[in-house]
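QA checklist item 7 of 12: single-chain prediction sanity check.
[x] sequence parsed
[x] length recorded as 147
[x] structure emitted
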Amino acid sequence: MRLKEQIKNDIKEAMRAKETAKRDTLRNIQAAIKQIEVDERRELGDADVEAILMKYAKQREDAKVQFAEGGRDDLVAKEEAELALIKTYLPEPMDDTELESILKEVIASVGAQSMKDMGKVMGAAKSTIGSRADGGRINVMVKKLLS
């Protein structure tokens, strides 16, 4: 089942089970998907939906940090619950050793020698790795390998 269809079905199940937090989170994700489909006039595939989910998860992480700094434990718990739900739709993240081995292959394939080639490596790495690692982790690892 495609990811977009799975989210739609899970919204229906959450409505039947009266799980309002799950329903609302999934509706927000579905709204973001529809917004991009309308704006770009195209049907989104699973990779596109995963990118939207990664962006939404990053927003939840940032909000959680800000709420924790503000002492709002109730909102921190809400963000953690949304984050846990989002992660069920994302593929399993890579560990550091797997990420490093893939990045070494990418660096060799693009012929990168120094930090000047960082852009080429990052572009190829993002397309190879997809949503299994976020850009920040990839960036740090590439800098380590190129220096």
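[x] summary fact logged: The chain has seven helices and no strands.
[ ] second reviewer sign-off
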